[in-house]
UniProtKB/TrEMBL annotation, chains A, B:
Protein's recorded name: FAD-dependent pyridine nucleotide-disulfide oxidoreductase
Disulfide partners: 40-45
UniProt domain FAD/NAD(P)-binding: residue ranges: 3-318
Binding sites annotated in the UniProt record for NAD(+): 177-184, 264
InterPro entries per the UniProt record, alphabetical: Class-I_Pyr_Nuc-Dis_Oxidored (IPR050151), FAD/NAD-bd_sf (IPR036188), FAD/NAD-binding_dom (IPR023753), FAD/NAD-linked_Rdtase_dimer_sf (IPR016156), Pyr_nuc-diS_OxRdtase (IPR001100), Pyr_nucl-diS_OxRdtase_dimer (IPR004099), Pyr_OxRdtase_I_AS (IPR012999)
Length: 454, 454
C-alpha cells in the first residue's frame, strides 16, 4: 500500500504530525529508530522536569529557612528518582503507543531514509522494510553538538543525554555552556549539594535572554556560591585520573568530578538521503518554504528545520502539516509567538520581541514597563522575591514579555495571548487578574509607567 | 474644602478607588477605621497565602516521599511564621501609605458615616472630622457572619480573624463550613500535623464549585484522613473545659482543641447612615444600579454591594467608579469573567459559567470537554496527579473553565481571557502553549472530545 503520510521521527513534532494526520483520516506510518517521544521525552525536557519537581521541596525549604520560618532537611534519593523517571518515561511511551494503535497509525521501528521516489526504507532489527508515501514529514530532531576539544567521553565529560543517565550526582560539576539546558541541569545538581562552576564564552548567562534577566540569574547563582566564568574560551575538557579537567585557552585549569558540555544542539539530517531527494540543507538545517515544505511532497518540521528548537513549536508545525497534507488548509504556515521557559527557581519566561529586537525594528516607538516581584504577595509567600516582569511595547502595542523569578512560567501563556493579540493599554482591563496571584505582577508591569528605549 | 471623591474603606476596592481617582487628578480623601488593606491584606487572602507558601515544602516532600523519591522532615516554626506575616503586612501597609501620600490622597483614620448632604463624618481618636464630597464611594467590605449557636467566643471557638491570630497551631481542629476560607485554613493546619474534621450542612465540600471538583477535593482530603461530615446540621459549638465542643442537631458531639467557624461573610453596612442617605439595603447588601451607584453621587463597590466577594472584583469595580466619577467613562459597568481560586494543594480554579449554569441558560448546546492531570508531565513531576480541567461550551464557544489539582491556579488567567473572548475550537491553535507545562492540561481539555450535557 501507499501511505497518505509517512513521518520520520517520533519526537513531539513527528508524533503529533502522525496523530493529527490520522485524526484527519489519513493513512499514516511513523518511523522511529529509537524511542517514542524523542529527545524531549526521553533525554530532555521531561526528565529534567521530573528532577526539578522531585527536588523542589529542597528549594522551598531553603528559602523559608533563610526567613527563619522553617527548618529541617530534605534528602532526595537519586537512585529512587532515576527509577521513577524511567518508569514515567516507559509509561508515557506505552500510552503513546496505545494512542497510535487506536488511531491506526503504523509504527515502524528502525532507521528510516529516503530511498527513491516517494519511498522510505527502514532498517529494522528484522530486516529492511519499504514504505511508499504520498507525502512525507521529516521530523528527525536534533542532537547535542560539540566544538573540537569539548567532545564528551562518557566517563567524566558528559553531554546532556549522559548526564541524565548518571547513577549518582557528582560532588562537583563544571557546566560548559550557560544556556537553558546547562542551567536547568546545574540547578538540579546544586539542590543535591553539588558545587557548580559555569563556563561560557559569552559575556552573560542565558545569553539568548534579555540582559537584565541574565543579570538577575547571575545574581541568584552567585548567592548560591556558584563559580561563574564568563567570556572564557575553553581549549578542551577531558577525563584525567577519574576527574573532569577543563583547560582554558589561557592555560588555566578547572577540575571537578564531572563536566557537562551543553553548548548547543544541531539537526539530525545527515545520511538519510535528504539531498538526493532534492532537499536543501544549510548548516545541517533543512530549508523549508512558507508551507514548511523542503521539496515536493516533503515537509520538514521541528528541530530538523532549525527554526525554533522547542517541542511546542514542533507540535504546532506538526498540526499545520497534517492539515496541509490532508488538504484542510491551503495558506502558508503562520507561527504565533512561541513561548520559552527556563524551569527551576528562579524561572525565566519569554515570548515575542525583546527590548533590543523591538528597538531595531522600530527605534522610535519602543518602550518598556516593568514590575518587580518584591511587591508581589505570592513571591513573598514563597520567600523568593528577586526578579521582575518586563513588557516591551512598540507602536503602543505589547510586542513582547519576559520575566525572571519565582514561578514566572505561569505568566507565559497569558503573555503569549497578549502578544499575539497585540494588546494596547485599553485592553488590559478587559479581563480581571486574580488576587492574590503571581499573575498580578504581569498586570502591574502592563500598567506601570513606560520608559522609552534609547 | 470639598473633596472630589471621598472613599469609605481602604480594602482592595476602596484603596484602589482612591489611588485610581487620584491618578486621574481628583482630590481624594480615604477613610479607614482600622488598617490599610482591609480584610484581604490583614485578615484574609494574604496571611493565608503566606501560611501556604511557608508550608509548601511539607506538601512537596510528602508527595515525593510517597513515590519513595525523597525523605526527611520539614518543620515550620509557627511563631516565626506569624512574626514574618506581621512584618510583611506592616511593610505592605507602609508601602500603601506612601503610595497615598505620593498621590496626594488624604488618609483619614477613623470610623466614617454619612452625616448629611454630601458629607461624611469621621470619628477619629482625636475627635470628629467632617469631609464634604462631590462623590462618595462606599467600600466598607464584609465581616464573618454566624448562625445562632455558632458565634465565636475567642477561646476555643474562632472565626477566621481569630484563627489567623493564633499563637500556636492546635493538634485537632473542627472546621464548620467547607467553603474556600475554611478549606484553605484547614489545609495549613493539616500541614502542621493537626487532625481535621470538616462539617458542612451541604452535601459536598466547596459547594459553590462544580460537583466533580468537590468530589476530587473530598477524595484528596479523605486520603489525608480528614473526617468529613456532610449534610450535618450543627446545633451549636462552644468552649467547654478548654476544648471546642460541637453538638449536632442529632445530639452527637465532636470535641477538638479548636473550632473554626467559616460559614460565610456578610456586608458591613449598618450604622453608617446609609439608609438615611437614600441607599437601599437588601440583606445588608447595598443595592446598586448598572453604574454601581446606590444613590445620587454615591457608589458602592466590593463586598459591600454583595455582587462578588473577591478582592480582584472589588478592584475592577474601583477602577470603573474612579473613571466614572472623573467623567472619563459614561456607559454602565461591564464586569468581565471573574476568576476564582482556592490555593493550596490541590488548588481549584473557576471562571465563567459552570456546566449546570450553562445548561440552564441553553440546555440545547451545552457541552463539556475534560483533561485528566494524570497525563500531564508537570503534575507527574510534583507527584500530584489527581485532578482535571473541565471546559464548558455553549453554542460552540467556551463559556467557562474549572480545574482542580496541582498548580491549576496558573490556568485561571488564560482561561479568563478565553472565556471573555468566547473562543471557538478554531481559536485554540492561534496561540502556542509551552511544553512541558501544566498549562497544556488546559490545551488538552480545550481539544478533547466534547460531551453533550444532559
Amino acid at each position: 500500500m501507499t501511505f497518505d503520510l509517512v513521518v520520520i521521527g517520533a519526537g513531539p513534532g513527528g508524533f503529533d504530525a502522525a496523530v493529527d494526520a490520522a485524526g484527519l483520516g489519513l493513512s499514516v506510518a511513523l518511523v522511529e529508530k529509537d524511542f517514542l517521544g524523542g529527545t524531549c521525552l526521553n533525554r530532555g525536557c521531561i526528565p529534567t522536569k521530573l528532577w526539578l519537581g522531585a527536588t523542589s521541596a529542597i528549594e522551598e525549604l531553603h528559602n523559608q529557612a533563610r526567613m527563619k520560618v522553617a527548618s529541617g532537611e530534605v534528602t532526595v534519593n537519586f537512585a529512587g528518582l532515576q527509577n521513577r523517571v524511567q518508569k514515567h518515561l516507559a509509561g508515557t511511551r506505552k500510552a503513546m503507543g496505545l494512542q497510535l494503535k487506536k488511531l491506526g497509525v503504523e509504527l515502524v521501528e528502525g532507521m528510516g531514509r529516503l530511498s527513491g521516489d516517494h519511498r522510505v526504507t527502514v532498517a529494522a532489527a528484522d530486516g529492511e522494510r519499504t514504505l511508499d508515501y504520498k507525502k512525507l514529514v521529516v521530523a528527525t530532531g536534533s542532537r547535542p553538538i560539540f566544538f573540537p576539544g569539548l567532545e564528551p567521553d562518557g566517563e567524566c565529560v558528559l553531554d546532556s543525554d549522559m548526564f541524565l543517565s548518571m547513577e549518582a550526582m557528582p560532588e562537583s560539576l563544571i557546566v560548559v555552556g550557560a544556556g537553558f539546558i546547562g542551567l536547568e541541569m546545574a540547578q538540579v545538581a546544586h539542590r543535591f549539594g553539588c558545587r557548580i562552576t559555569v563556563v561560557d564564552a559569552m559575556d552573560r548567562v542565558a545569553p539568548l535572554e534579555d540582559p537584565e534577566v541574565s543579570a538577575t540569574l547571575a545574581s541568584v547563582f552567585k548567592r548560591w556560591k556558584w563559580d561563574i566564568r564568563l567570556e572564557e574560551r575553553v581549549a578542551g575538557v577531558l577525563t584525567r585520573n577519574g576527574k573532569a579537567e577543563l583547560t582554558f585557552q589561557s592555560g588555566d585549569k578547572l577540575i571537578a568530578d564531572k563536566a557537562l558540555v551543553a553548548v548547543g544542539r544541531g539537526p539530525v539530517t545527515m545520511d538519510i538521503g535528504l539531498r538526493k531527494a532534492g532537499v536543501e540543507l544549510l548548516f545541517n538545517q533543512i530549508q523549508v518554504d512558507d508551507y514548511l515544505m523542503a521539496a515536493p511532497d516533503i515537509y520538514a518540521i521541528g528541530d530538523a528545520n532549525g527554526h525554533i528548537q522547542l517541542a511546542h513549536a514542533a507540535s504546532h508545525q506538526a498540526r499545520y502539516v497534517a492539515l496541509h497534507a490532508a488538504g484542510k488548509v491551503e495558506g502558508p504556515y503562520v507561527c504565533p509567538p512561541v513561548p520559552s521557559v527556563l524551569y527551576g527557581a528562579p524561572e525565566v519566561m519569554r515570548v515575542g520581541m525583546m527590548e533590543n529586537e523591538a528597538f531595531l525594528a522600530d527605534y522610535d516607538s519602543t518602550e518598556v514597563s516593568t514590575a518587580q516581584l518584591a511587591a508581589n504577595p505570592m513571591a513573598q509567600a514563597h520567600a523568593a522575591t528577586q526578579g521582575f516582569v518586563k513588557v516591551v511595547w512598540s507602536g503602543g502595542k505589547v510586542v513582547g514579555v519576559t520575566a525572571v523569578g519565582h514561578d514566572v512560567s505561569r505568566l507565559v501563556t497569558p503573555a503569549a495571548m497578549i502578544v499575539h493579540q497585540g494588546w494596547t493599554a485599553d485592553a488590559i482591563h478587559s479581563i480581571i487578574f486574580p488576587h492574590p496571584s503571581l499573575d498580578e505582577a504581569l498586570l502591574t508591569a502592563l500598567t506601570a509607567e513606560r520608559k522609552k528605549v534609547q
